[in-house]
Amino acid sequence: MDLVKSILEENEGKEDLSKSIKVHKNVELDIDLGTLLASDYNVFNTKALKPKPNSYLKDLTRDNVQLLINKIWELSVERVDEAIVAKLPKPNYTLPRSRVIPKPKPLTKWQQFAKEKGIRSKKKGRSKLKWDEELKKWIPTYGYKRVKAQEQKEWLIEAKGDANSIDDPFAKAKTAKQERQSKNELQRLRNIAKSKNIKLPRVGLPTREHFSSSQQLSEALTIARTSTSSIGKFQSRLPKEKDAKGIAKEVTGMKRKRKAPPLNVVEEKRQNKNLVDSVLKSNTKIVRDDYSTGIAEIKQSTTSGSKKRKGALKTSKTAKKPKAGKGKRDLHKKVGGRKRR
């Protein structure tokens, strides 16, 4: 008792921190209970706001919330599961949304079919576990533990009469499961593309509608071959298949092939000799460069395999041009010039 008296004596001098639920306002608040919105049109007290703005705003917020709660308690209330619930009226204000209203998610093919046929899913209320008579225990209907339980059940597979003795039935079952999973994943991606209005290529060979040029087809072929973890290093190529031009920039991890540097002096000489031979074997040869005009006279050289025609006339640069007889023509003498008829 002495301890209780001492505590009460200590609290006698302290102020009562609890405030009254009655709040006075010069201008009554505009309260919309449907949206729990309270609009205060009273003027701020600048004298109390400037020295202690935080405490003033805190007290003002507390008074406005108290008035809103007082209005809520004036409504009809009821007790639901050890909680007092008040039924709010229809809102008077339409509050703006910060984001656009989300569009309804389009239905998949199965959901649309189930809706038309009136098929209802039975997932709600279904237990995750089910009793297995063969294992004599509860096993989950999905998850990794279900896979383990399935392996315990199917530890032995009966071979069919026409089955090959070399084939592994467990490997066949695993491959069939992977194919089903791939089919389901493909159908899921198709549903996503259909909901976003994305045009998918037809099954089979690509058409001109999807690859209008050979360059696009080559790029698609290169991207498909390099879509492995090794960037197509261990993928087989088609006969005379080459990488598409400029595809190294689009495919991450793919680098342009560079020629290795020469290993020794002999190898370097051989590369330089091949380069010079390729230049000299070209059909165009520069005969003369006119540096004053900047024009180069280019002459086409004949190939080594071509043969000259027999009996072709050869004209020398020193041959004189024939002159006429200037009207004095002697028929007995042979004079150079154009023969008149």
**What is the distance, rounded to the nearest whole angstrom, between the alpha carbons of the first and last residues?**
161 Å
- The count of DSSP E runs of length 2 or more, i.e. the number of strands, is 8
Low-confidence regions: 293-299, 301-314
Summarize the biggest pleated sheet.
2 strands, antiparallel
Fraction in beta strands: 5-15%
Major β-sheet strand ordering: 1-2
State mean pLDDT (0 to 100 scale): 76
Instruction: Decide which structural class fits the backbone.
Output: alpha+beta
Query: How large, in whole angstroms, is the Cα Rg?
Result: 49 Å
Provide the succession of SSEs.
Answer: HEEHHEEHEEHHHHEE
Shape label: extended
Number of helices: 8
The share of residues in helices is 25-40%
